[in-house]
Amino acid sequence: MKIFSSAQLQKADQLTVEREPIASIDLMERAATTVFQEIHQRLQGAPIPIKIFCGIGNNGGDGLVIARKLIEHGYHVTTYIVNYSDRRSKDFLINYDRIKNVTKDWPILIKGKNDFPTLTRNDFIVDAMFGLGLNRPVSGWTKDLIEHINAAEAFTLSIDIPSGLFSDQALAEEHAAIQADFTLTFQSLKTSFLLPQSEAYVGDFQIVDIGLDRDFLQTAIVHKFFITREEVIKRYKPRNKFSHKGMYGHVAIIGGSLGKMGSIVLATKASLVGGAGLATAFVPQCGISILQTALPEAMVVAVASHDHLKADQKTMDVLSDLQPTTVCFGMGTGQEQATIDTFHHILKNTKNAMVIDADGINILAAYPIMLKDIPAKSVLTPHPKELERLIGSWVDDFDKLKKTKEFSKLHDLVVLIKGAHTVVVDGDDLYFNSTGNPGMATAGSGDVLAGIISSLIAQDYISKDAAIIAVYLHGKAGDFAADKVSMQGVMASHLVEYLGEAILDLFKPQEPKT
Ligand SMILES: NC(=O)C1=CN([C@@H]2O[C@H](COP(=O)(O)OP(=O)(O)OC[C@H]3O[C@@H](n4cnc5c(N)ncnc54)[C@H](OP(=O)(O)O)[C@@H]3O)[C@@H](O)[C@H]2O)[C@H](O)CC1
Ligand SMILES: [K+]
């Protein structure tokens, strides 16, 4: 699913008005009516106090339409105009008049701190102060009002975007934005919703289709996407009836050290459950019986050394004789010099795209000279600390995206930014994951992900698609697991266990949205 920038959405608004054609006031009525219907469906006429805060632009105009519709349906609504400027928009003014037809009175004007209403936890607040027109941080008494609303801890629904939050740039900590519990957003997600810095503001969100110009939406070029089920299905390759295991690739998972063999078990198992035809774990001696006991389906090759990976020529020859389709390196290896040398040797002798995880990434960060030896389009799967070691620190989340893109382009790699909405970075293109839950922040979760990505590359998916499908399925498996064992109860093994269910779910008929 495409993620549009605020400039593109404003363009879409304008083109819809011209091409449909539809008067902008009618488009506002249509958009806000859709929001009203969503609210009405949830509240079902509940007699709770609803307080709607409207700005003076079109976001405020939306708020006025919602207020009018709610009043017409018998809700207890108080409407406030947050008068932060005298430059009221045309469509705001029309709706300012229209609401008077149902209330017989003007909404309450807020012009400063003295006008702030008392709010309680029992209020239902609708925030329609600023939308995509926000062009600078909110300041003065308007900022105080945002803080006043947040302090009430009442359920807050934001229209289009939590007021004060930017769509395409970061909000510094000292600035204020509405801490929404829920955001109903028009036509497209806003990038900031998916970034950790916005966590306090966005809450849950839902996209409402307001019928903007289809042609524009389909043809506009974007570099940001949301990884939905449809994005995965369109990339998924069904299996042929006459296929055999040799057609689904051979994954070599290389890593492990004394006390850290579990990571290899998880990754190797995930690669098999993910569909690879064959998997070989390539480990120090200490790993042989662990692997063979835990995972009879996998082959095991051990280097001569006992505790760490220290490959001699003989074992390297064994690896090249195996001719794995995909090599995955890094989990649990540690950073002994012999291991670093082994890694460097593997990099230089591998042609196909690899998957590099954990200590593999730490070694690359410590020895950037090795970056040039990584096969093109390899996938790096750092968690935030590992990413920082790799690309340096960032000022904010948008800067992190920019620096990761530069790194990806410079080295021709696919890089993951792991987190609540894991991002797959492929050059200029960013793919944000939609699945997963905080229960997945658990030991070994990343090993499973690296195993799935390796598995898909071995099955002939291009690295970017392998990463996109893998993060989605990994998250979905986590969601299924959390449903069964609770978020706290999720362990990495559950992610492997529920991976099959996540794959099956791709092809299950979905329940219609209520
Ligand atoms: N066009 C349509 O029919 C639709 C519009 N939709 C809704 O519109 C908003 C975007 O509305 P817009 O009027 O462009 O802007 P806002 O309502 O977000 O903001 C109003 C004005 O506020 C000023 N501004 C910006 N930042 C600040 C600030 N920090 N402090 C004070 N004032 C600020 C700015 O004007 P300036 O001249 O002062 O710069 C804004 O113009 C969109 O989000 C939707 O909710 C829907 O898309 C439906 C169709
Ligand atoms: K808003």
From TrEMBL:
Residues annotated for AMP binding in this entry: 418-422, 446
Family matches, as SUPFAM superfamilies: Ribokinase-like (SSF53613), YjeF N-terminal domain-like (SSF64153)
InterPro entries referenced in this protein's UniProt entry, alphabetically: Carbohydrate_kinase_pred_CS, CARKD, Nnr, Ribokinase-like, YjeF_N_dom, YjeF_N_dom_sf
Keywords: ATP-binding, Isomerase, Lyase, Metal-binding, Multifunctional enzyme, NAD, NADP, Nucleotide-binding, Potassium
Enzyme Commission (EC) number: 4.2.1.136, 5.1.99.6
Domain named YjeF N-terminal: residues: 9-218
Catalysed conversion reaction: (6S)-NADHX + ADP = AMP + phosphate + NADH + H(+); (6S)-NADPHX + ADP = AMP + phosphate + NADPH + H(+); (6R)-NADHX = (6S)-NADHX; (6R)-NADPHX = (6S)-NADPHX
CC cofactor note: Binds 1 potassium ion per subunit.
Cofactor annotation: Mg(2+); K(+)
TM stretches of this protein: none
Ranges where the YjeF C-terminal domain occurs: 228-506
Entry superkingdom: Bacteria
PROSITE patterns: YJEF_C_2, YJEF_C_3, YJEF_N
Binding site for K(+): 59, 127, 163
Residue numbers binding (6S)-NADPHX: 58-62, 131-137, 160, 332, 383, 447
CDD domains assigned: YXKO-related
Family: Belongs to the NnrE/AIBP family. In the C-terminal section; belongs to the NnrD/CARKD family.
HAMAP family for this protein: NADHX_dehydratase (MF_01965), NADHX_epimerase (MF_01966)
Assembly: Homotetramer.
Role noted for this protein: Catalyzes the dehydration of the S-form of NAD(P)HX at the expense of ADP, which is converted to AMP. Together with NAD(P)HX epimerase, which catalyzes the epimerization of the S- and R-forms, the enzyme allows the repair of both epimers of NAD(P)HX, a damaged form of NAD(P)H that is a result of enzymatic or heat-dependent hydration. Catalyzes the epimerization of the S- and R-forms of NAD(P)HX, a damaged form of NAD(P)H that is a result of enzymatic or heat-dependent hydration. This is a prerequisite for the S-specific NAD(P)H-hydrate dehydratase to allow the repair of both epimers of NAD(P)HX.
Annotated PANTHER family: ATP-DEPENDENT (S)-NAD(P)H-HYDRATE DEHYDRATASE (PTHR12592:SF0), ATP-DEPENDENT (S)-NAD(P)H-HYDRATE DEHYDRATASE FAMILY MEMBER (PTHR12592)
Listed name of the protein: Bifunctional NAD(P)H-hydrate repair enzyme
Native source organism of the sequence: Gangjinia marincola
